[in-house]
Amino acid sequence: MLSSRKQRVLRALIEEYVACACPVGSRTIAENHRLGVSSATIRNELSALEDEGYITQPHTSAGRIPTDAGYREFVDGILADATSAGRLPRPSAIEALKKSADALDDLIGRMNAELARLTECLSVIIAPVSASARIRQISLVSLSDASALAVMVTEDGQVANESVMFSSPVPAEDLEELSRLLNRALGGKEAEEAAALSQTADPALRTDAARAVIRALIAAAAALTRTRATRSGMSTLMRKPEFHESESLLPVMEILEDDTVLFKAIGADGQDADGIKISIGHENAASQLFGVSVVAGTYGRGPAQGMIAVIGPTRMDYSKTIGAVAAARGILNGE
């Protein structure tokens, strides 16, 4: 357990390092933080913190930088302060998003962009995997005489689409009528029930065009059962000093290539009372993430769960990031 003074010195060093990405010396801390102690005392405390593994000196005569253990102590302090206050701080820009989108996929897209902007890190949102999806609306958008886009919106706000190719031209008015028939037949039902429509008594749903659209709807529904991640902020992450060398970012990019692997790597174990999990450097289960920190939270209920994650350097602004992820999680949970 660190003394109160050591905690203040460590917090000051981390705040300086987060701001400048340069090793921090005792003089900088003394000049920029009113700790009520001399530079000599700060030097002594820094030396003790280094001996205890909370900070390290990258080069002789240079200042010091935090270790994973130092960041963990710092983050635990943020969480303790939030517990005392009753709630993590939540950015108003995130809170405002719940009024600006009516479909889950639209909300996820806006949320991703806002999280990346606020945190200046990489934002990843993994959509819930649906075991089954009840249809709210079906739209058929004509692309040409022989092709269309079938768009399916589920009752929980997810959107899936699939292209349709017709064996012969389908007039726009026929496509509109087919859309009305499909909405009447499938509204409120699970997408898998579309397969039975080819056996229906209605001859309009047994045409080649109708069967092509039904196959597309089944394929679109199947896409909702696969792990799907959207990402925003990769270019911002690449501009961080820690990732100026491409080799340092390659492991992260590798794990981002597979949505299912990414979901398992981030994981849901170890969440705190606010449903947030913070993994710092080597605390991450996947070795590809040892060079970064991940602030993540799940949303959704039961077997259909999604995940929000912000991935950035261990030098990220934890207070801002934790609050942003907590706010995003609350909105996607409908709170």
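Above is the first protein from milestone M3; the second protein from the same milestone is given next.
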Amino acid sequence: MNKILSAVLLTAFCSLMVACSQRGTVVYAVEDAPGYNCWPMIQNIGDRLVCVYTVGKYHDPSEKGRGAYARYSDDGARSWSERVLVDENPEYGTSSIGKGSDSESNALFWIRRMNADPRMALYRTSDGKKFDLISTPHLDPNPMQITDIYQTPEGLECLWFSDDYSDIHDNKSWGVLISRDNGLNWEQRVIEKDLPKKDWPTEPSVAVIGDGCLIAIARCEMMGGCQFQLTSNDWGKTWNKTTTNIGDVLQSTPTLIYDKNKELIYNYYYQRGDGLLKVRTASVKDILENGKAWPEPRILAEGGRERPHDSGNANAVAIKSRHFITYYSGDPVNCRVVVAARR
């Protein structure tokens, strides 16, 4: 059965490669073994790409024993190393939820632990081969997730959000974490609290514009909702929140890349249901104070459509002019982790 399944996946993946190549984007497999391989995060160490993701039997982040693994690539995502274990325990499930770099260019990855250990775990690697656990902060409120790490004059920062996904309770919050010692210790700030679900920005991605300016795009948990846009002019001490004109998302996570030389910002996201990896490219000056001015999207690749939420959640990194966007695509029990490479 595994051989048959692998052949089916390979055939589907080859068709995907052809379709994407025609759009100037090539999609490479990171992990396509049988099983629910998902929730990837990608970061570079120089020219080396490192992808962290989780491996389980089905679509359930709380599945006990679900482990977090990593592979690295030195040829622009074409081929990947053997996988190495990052975090695994029979008493809890893991999800890879955020990534970034420290001031010494090491790669950092946040891992969410569910069940027996509800804390977030931060791992550091200098080579994509060995991962060191450097922090498991006690936070209040305890985040649902901590997202991608970025650097400001204060140190390392990342956004977080909490609490549950219910429509009933107005108990949602979000804010900022700050580390002044390269990720060993974290200070927590709450930006908004006691929010209803409709006003709750989740799974945000931040682009550092400069001179105190930050811009973030966040997911909306409401069906039919549009992405949020968050902006700050004081390195994240205060934020302004608006909605965008980006509604072709279906609760899928955005990821931003900012090209300082061209003053362009790239908003990558996976439209669940339709199974489409998309990008919207905008001039920062056009959208910074007008979240509804994002241009129309460009389709880059296609993925799973069988059940909308079994595929999605893009995460991107840039190496020079090349962009690498990882996401997962499949069905409830068989899902692959891929990387779309484009210039």
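Note on the second protein: The chain has one domain: 2-342.
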